[in-house]
Amino acid sequence: MSIERVLSRYRRRSRKRGAAIIEFAVVCPLLCAILFGIIEYGHLFLVQQTLTNAAREGCRMVVLQTSTSPYSDATARIGQILDAVGIEEDEYSLTISDADTNGQMSIEISVAYDDVTITGALPTKFLGGTGDCGERSLRGRCTMRKEGL
User: Fold this and answer.
1) Are 142 and 56 in contact (CB under 8 A)?
2) What's the chain's Rg over C-alpha atoms?
3) Which is nearest to 94 in space by CA: 114, 117, 78?
4) How many CB atoms lie under 10 A from the CB of residue 117?
5) At residue 29, what are phi and psi to the nearest 5 degrees?
6) What Cα–Cα distance (Å) separates residue 61 from each residue in 47, 117, 143?
């Protein structure tokens, strides 16, 4: 083999390697954005399920006849459940409605997106909100009939 053939082969290989590096540099940010989006969505889904479960457990404690102080027990239990996911007491709003004429009681818990996102305010800005608890938030609701009525 002549030296010129060896050099030409080497040049072709190095050009291919250079093209692969440039392709990777173009595609890598897109793949990372997709990966972080999947992680963020999974975390928001976890928080949503936790809010629903906390509202359900709190509502169950409120409607039981055997509870001596239902509201304080329910708020304490909701606080325990939400603390397990890293949601502090000042980050969520809790609304407990008294029994209506049908004996229905309900609990609603809401948390702003900005308080529970992993990546910060980016998903909120992407979704078009400002991050207020009233505008863009996750909510957990539960309604149950009061026992003994």
Assistant:
1) yes
2) 27
3) 78
4) 17
5) -60, -35
6) 21, 29, 12
103: left (phi over 0), alpha (psi -120 to 50) or beta: left
Coil vs helix vs strand at 131: coil
pLDDT tens digits, one per residue of 89-119 = 888 999 988 777 777 889 999 998 877 778 7
Amino acid at 27: V
* Whether pTM exceeds 0.85: no
Encoded amino acid at 12, one letter: R
Tally DSSP H helices, then E strands, for the chain: 4, 3
- Whether 143 and 59 have beta carbons less than 8 Å apart is answered as yes
Alpha carbon distance 64, 7 (integer Å): 84
Angle formed by the axes of helices 70-84 and 3-63, nearest 10°? 170
